[in-house]
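@channel anyone free to eyeball this complex?
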Amino acid sequence: MPTFVIGPLAASLFTVLAIVSLFLSFVMLGSHWLKNHIYAFALESWTIAALSAAVAYFGHYQELYIIAILTALFRGSLLPYLLLRLMARLGLEREFTALLRPSSSLVLGTALVIVAYLVARHLGARVPSDDRIVILALTCMLSLKLIGFLMMILRSEAISHILGLLVIENGIFLGSQILVPGMPLLLELVILFDLLIIVLTFGILMRYLQLHAGTTSSRGLQRLVG
Amino acid sequence: MADLILGLWLAPTLAIILILAIRRARAAEFLNLAAAIVTLCASAALLARAPARPVILGDGFLLSSPLGLWVVLCVALVYALASIYAIGYMRLLTEEASRLPRFYALFAGFALTMLVAPFMNNPGIYWIVIDLTTIVSAFLVGFEREAESAEAAWKYIIIVSAGLSLALLGIILFYWAGTFSFGPVYAMTWHRLRLMAPHAPHSLLLLAFLLTLIGFGTKVGLAPMHTWLPDAHSEGPAPVSALLSGALLNTAMLGVVRFLTVLDAGGLGGAGHDALCVLGALSLTVAALFIVRQTGAKRLMAYSSIEHMGVIALGFGFGGVLGIAGAMYQMLNHALNKSLMFFGAGNMMRAYKSKDMRVMRRILRFYPVTGTIWLLGAIAITGAPPFGPFQGEIAILRAGMGGPNTWAVAVMALLLIVIFIGFLAHFRRMVAGPMPAAGHEPGLALSVWMTAPLWLAIIPLTILGLWWPPLLWRLFVRAAQVLR
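replying in thread with the prediction:
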């Protein structure tokens, strides 16, 4: 719960930034070109970094500036760079085997946002805080979570799975900036680095897959069943 | 106490550094084994000195609780057994000889992460350490660099990471619920979560718990989040399978149980226990269905792990002193027994050069001693007397009969019988089936490294089945008092 008083300017700024990140996740959902995904993810990370900085400024949480810089650096620059390199190395351009057409996935994504809003409204009515921004933060957090899972389900390229997971993590980060800006710095830092290690691990394992299984699509990974 | 914990962590750390510095397979084997023995001694000493109440150490970062120390003992025990076995088993993988030092470094690193996690006093840090266990063990699962192991490692890390992201969301919601009691900035600990729980909004608390249950439940391998488990456990080298199954699953179960106590403190325990019982019963069902129709030896053991995690989840779900004691007893028995089963499966796999149980015929004729112990292990793991798992399962069944979830007792009893029949039917075929085709007889001579751990597991299993040590009972009672 943000304990600082949120003025109308801060509230609208937070809202815009949260909505922009939600919108960017729809860009990812609606496109099958991997490059677009990675750029949208980078932009989303920068938006979240801006949100961190805004919360730091209006809420006087000095340490959130550090988080903002690290988010922009790691999530906004380093991770997209690593993913682009991975994409180039594996020679992947786009996702060919998505289950649904982009338009259908967008409709499904919208439905998930509505579900997220209903849950957020239910929770928001029960917590001792009457800030509208809480409901917005919860909605974005849960929406990104669900959209990330949807991306992982609908797509079969390994790199799409990584991106889905990163969208989920972005959602958690976005929500936590507004809901719990006072979360200890240590924890946030460790989670950032943890993410970096995970992506590096994914990269290595993907090359294992390419090398030893001959495919990076989950359609091709059918050896282990039963 | 802090010294002992430090020693516990230092041994594998030193081993990793030395292994990476020396880079020789033989040295790596014995450095890893030495680290394992030191950690086993340290964890036993820690448990012997376990205080009745949880103790906070190291600037509030470390928590030493009876249940946590118990999990650490289980981890150290499996680590020690698997380290002995690994020496014999990994030498057979001649094509990997040059990469053995890296294997042992990862192996010790994996054990280290599991020895660190139970001591974490901050749920967020606990989550991070559990995430690290995934990363390290994914490389171990994919160590053999075949198509199957690469696939298994990939599925493992992607499914578990996705699951754990749900747990992270749950932890953030728990932290948020705490800000209503403690203000926006506070240090999150297990104890503080229990303190804030009575004042937190019920729906928020329940949502947060369900998210952590699903998240850590994925790591525990509870159905329907178990899909990574049979692949990862069957495709890694046998010592890794033992560590994954006997040690890692318990470490993750600890998180589920601790979040359950938060829910208990918030007055919502009923819903939490019900949820755990449902997942436990579902795991038993899935395991029973797949055990009956299984053909791979190690996949059979993997589904049996899902079964036992279901049993342990039911134990904690039933709750009460008896339920918790039964579940903790089952943790140790499962750790010993499943290590034995994976070692036996690994031996037979190497001997018959196949993972398929239909190829492993007449095991008692070719391997009278190893085969007999493996068979006894199979009888033990299906819950037949006079072995440890029987005692644990009976305690859990008795605990359930006194609680509100009697339906789960009936389901559990029925499915245990199904699993007993299905599991032992496979062993009957391996013992009594037709002779292997000419030219396919196993010719491998098993080294003492590969047979000694079987003995080291079956002897305590038999003792634990015949005699429930009062010392352990007192420990379980203390753990149950802390958890309630």
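from a first look: The first helix of chain B runs from residue 2 to 22.
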